User: Fold these one by one.
Assistant:
Number 1:
Amino acid sequence: MSDNFAATRVRALSVRDIRFPTSLENTCPSEQHPDPDYSCAYVTLFTDTDLRGHGLCFTLGRGTELVVSAVKSLARLVVGRPLSKLLYGNMRATWHSLVSESQLRWVGPEKGVVHLAVGAVVNALWDLWARLERVPLWKLLVDMDPQVLVSTIDFTYITDALTEQEALQMLQQMQEGKQERENFMLKNGYPAYTTAAGWIEYSDEKIRTKCEQFLARGWRHFKLKVGLDLQRDKERCRLVRDIIGFCRPLWIEEPTSPDDILGHATIADALRPLGIGVATGEACQNRVVFKQLLQAKAIDFCQIDACRVGGVSEVLAIYLMAKKFNVPVCPHAGGVGLCQMVQHLQMWDYVSLTGTTKNRVIEYVPHLEEHFKTQINVTNCRYFPPKIPGYSVEMWAKSLQDYEYPAGPAWKKLYAEGKFPDPAMEKCPLVERPIERISKR
Amino acid sequence: MSDNFAATRVRALSVRDIRFPTSLENTCPSEQHPDPDYSCAYVTLFTDTDLRGHGLCFTLGRGTELVVSAVKSLARLVVGRPLSKLLYGNMRATWHSLVSESQLRWVGPEKGVVHLAVGAVVNALWDLWARLERVPLWKLLVDMDPQVLVSTIDFTYITDALTEQEALQMLQQMQEGKQERENFMLKNGYPAYTTAAGWIEYSDEKIRTKCEQFLARGWRHFKLKVGLDLQRDKERCRLVRDIIGFCRPLWIEEPTSPDDILGHATIADALRPLGIGVATGEACQNRVVFKQLLQAKAIDFCQIDACRVGGVSEVLAIYLMAKKFNVPVCPHAGGVGLCQMVQHLQMWDYVSLTGTTKNRVIEYVPHLEEHFKTQINVTNCRYFPPKIPGYSVEMWAKSLQDYEYPAGPAWKKLYAEGKFPDPAMEKCPLVERPIERISKR
């Protein structure tokens, strides 16, 4: 704990609506999201000292303003409070206070807009904590006493699957050999897979070229987007198979509604004899739904998202449950800042929790990386552990300024060029203050 | 269909943040919501003619601004469009477009803030439809051809439990005897239960007095709030039992996380031998979760909420699934406008779907009724069918003006009297535009 810790308070919080005009690039992530503008609600916690914490949650453009507004509503729960009351032994209570705000919880609870906002704030708190200790987040977690680590997790609603005592035991049992595993990671890195060869709008020719390039560079796991049309899906699968030479999909991802636990279980049951797994999680709202996906044997791969659930504290709970149910975690990444975050979590999983990379890969999609101060080190298709203190999501001040929506210079330029409609110039279809006669009661 | 229908368009939409300072009254709905300010996001659709549609979704104060903002983001999907393209045979497509907006859906999908917003807009569309036909909503539904009725429902993600064809057959089978059942309702009304005798902060003395009063007035179903402390809960149960003389709880409500389908199933299993049912639904996010609660035998009573899920169209899907799984619907009411809405749905359930009131009661909590133009008619502990066209949620213009948050006169008075903090005067802890040096890249 650094010297000035006791005296340090969160002095202020800022939250910004940062959007990148990726819909112009025509990189369609799925048939349900044909035209995303990759975005984030970007949170900075300012303290009495130079120390700052940064956190974000990934969004697709419209709707970011809702998360930004929700963060503002949560701000009073962290601003003005000393770090000693927010972090360390108080992290669980801090987290619980954020998800159970007595009025706000009605418009959740623990899901959607308000939970994404919690994720961004909690991630900023963990970034602050790691910076305070002057270590990258994965190292903070790895070196953390198991007792302290489980004390940061709120076990409410999951004790039927995992108690605090069981979590503690799992971590304690893995203390041995930690240093060797850390050295192994520092030397060899963590295996990655690529999503960049199979975007849904790619032509057959482009898929062929991309697959050949990635294969030549050593990649062995490829993601192919499906869902537009069964016949086209089959043709595309055949095309990729012809090039990469593998026989069977490792998993199918989110094959039905992310809310349908029993539906996923039915699909997983049907696919198990074929040796094809079911993966899901990027749209899974919280630890309670992950718990049930595990209990119902509905998933063979657990795809946590670093900021859809309530930040690091809740993600740790999900990793611990996945370990107990013997399901590997392969995190969702890409978007804005997800690769930056999940590498830390997966390093911790290897060193402190599971001790294996078997059946585990981290998604890698290197778009928008240039906006982050800490560069991801993916070499020879492997993620190497970050070395800079924090959670790796601090963005360049110039990127924040340029891409703040709707008035950042990059956006103004797009309006001027006619590439995007200027929201200020839109003929607003709302009547915000309808003029009405006040009727007699 | 009225004559000027073809030409009519939705000209504009207004949405207002309406809050009532109920936290000052100390009527605590549950231990998780100790100090709610009962509120709503209130939507009005304006057309080319005098015709308007009103819809709302119930909230608890903070967070209403998020739903209001989400409604504004959805407005472009309905404003400017002719009613012929929004309603009737196009209702399913309209609903689907609202829940699958390609960027907004990421911060849901179909849950929390964005789904509450969909509920308010969809309820306003149904109100408009009923007014167009000059009938109350329950009568619109009752007289609707079964084929048209099922065409308003989006069956996506529920066909494994209920197909459109099955839904159609269930409705067609109940066509016979409809007129008799409608007459029965008009004459005898629908049984209600009261929540007003057992609020959690009531003293034993107050509970005793209230129970005796309600019992004398003919009430036979009482709700008692629990959850603060097991010993106190037991004492309060004993107290009520001594007065009303009934032996066993009919149900226990939302005994665990609203997201925990399998947890509810475990509790229901354990309680079944005791003859105590499990009820849940007021915080259940959408039809996909209700489907699983039914599939897993996790609920004995289905407590739909008229606006947490996506409005009338989605509520109908849930009623139809409940009928198939033979689970009675006892709607969540109270709040702001919920009693007004659910009475319509429950009348339709009796006349057109199940033909019975066995094990079915409508919650009745008559607070804030005075703000609505259409009065609820509860006589001798029974709801009588509304007679005025629409969905009964139109509020008095004066109420809307007075209680609009944060600048309505009723709120300004409270700030002046020192009863509520004026948000405009709060020392804002946010730094919205942090001044930062732009670092060299």
Number 2:
Amino acid sequence: MKRSERLVDMVKYLLARPHTLIALPFFAERYDAAKSSISEDLAILKQTLASNQDGILETVAGAAGGVRYIPFIGKNYAREYLTELADRIEEPDRILPGNFVYLSDILGSPQDLRRIGQLIATKYAYSNVDYVMTVETKGIAIAQAVSRFLNVPFVLVRRRPKITEGATISVNYVASSSDRVEKMELAKRSLPSDSNVLIVDDFMKGGGTLTGMEELVNEFDCHVVGMSVLCETKYASQKVVDDYQSLIKITEVDRNKKLIKVEPGNFLEQTDFDRF
Amino acid sequence: MKRSERLVDMVKYLLARPHTLIALPFFAERYDAAKSSISEDLAILKQTLASNQDGILETVAGAAGGVRYIPFIGKNYAREYLTELADRIEEPDRILPGNFVYLSDILGSPQDLRRIGQLIATKYAYSNVDYVMTVETKGIAIAQAVSRFLNVPFVLVRRRPKITEGATISVNYVASSSDRVEKMELAKRSLPSDSNVLIVDDFMKGGGTLTGMEELVNEFDCHVVGMSVLCETKYASQKVVDDYQSLIKITEVDRNKKLIKVEPGNFLEQTDFDRF
């Protein structure tokens, strides 16, 4: 097999398995090639990815070594995308009665979900995330997108009891949108204790739902490594969480005036792009 | 830029944008290379993908021509994966009270969702799908996985009214699991009329939910191009749909006897792998 053919297959293989250590002998056997040739292939791959600010190929030395593909997006590209996304959300047609904002098109767009997943996975690339957690329903798209690029499972917290998940642990929380005490629960078998959990959601107002998930993580004897939301909105009272990132921030919305103002959230400042 | 570097970038670019026509001049400009060199690159790419039964690079000739990456999985690989998946589901621990089966781990696994998405996208690669449709909650993971590989948006039917989606159209349906008449609805703006819709879901018993979605597609003046579910189970009465594919079939489940029998569903017979 020629180098060019090996490279094509290698990229495909690695992209489908981010954050996974692949031993050199695996590729040598797959392509029936010398380890020295494989090393040269990987050097080319590494350099090309690095020069495009579009993922890293990490080399792990030693007998148990190999390579690991880490998806990431550079800061300029991140800023460009979030600015463009904010512009798209800044359409008066999106304002629904009650000043809610229609985002379902973005939450169903594979190209947006790819970028959103890459962005959040960039921030948490070295946080040893074991599970991504979200709460039904719209958070699922975000969780699945991040899960793909961190290559770890996601778990789904339910707002209503389900009979198809077995025993659960539940917590109460105060929903910022209604100020009511509600209940959320997670299947016991879905999250092993001592896991590192990244919490994500589509929308955040006061942070009540995020706080509920934090509490649930504690009830499972796990650790919260971070919280990211696609979109936060201004909130009259004090938010109940402060350590979170938002990709997008809605600063003003008024259906009567057909006015909506949107800007990139605090994600750009809170992410250390220079590590890469 | 060297050929090897161009190839690495091209694969990455095309894999992120399946089913999208990319004009040759786009690549020529991106790499500052002659069109003849780009044509040679693409020929290498095409051949490597074809020999691995792992996607196709379609060439579209003419002035408006270019290349298009079509993800697909070969039949042997599909059979191997579905057999292995059936084995994993055949664990007595998965049987919940009421003979429900725990599948949440598979619906949250990025590697399973990648394969499930590729499989369903293989079957519908040439069906001109415009939208993937599913109903909350667990179907979302399947819809998003398929949406990624067909590179079309997915829309989410709700079982309960939501205030964050604007005007909706609703239908009634009879849920096979409860025999009760229920209601499902979809935001009007989420699905333009005359679209081709692929319906997917995680689980199917009698097919009542699928029928409800079919009706909803009709109410939107759209066309159903097919229906796929991850898992179907035996059902005492006649199923109300017959034109569907299931990846996995649960043929027996009995919590008292700790017995569960699972096999690949009708997907393999119903898919024409030889088109590729």
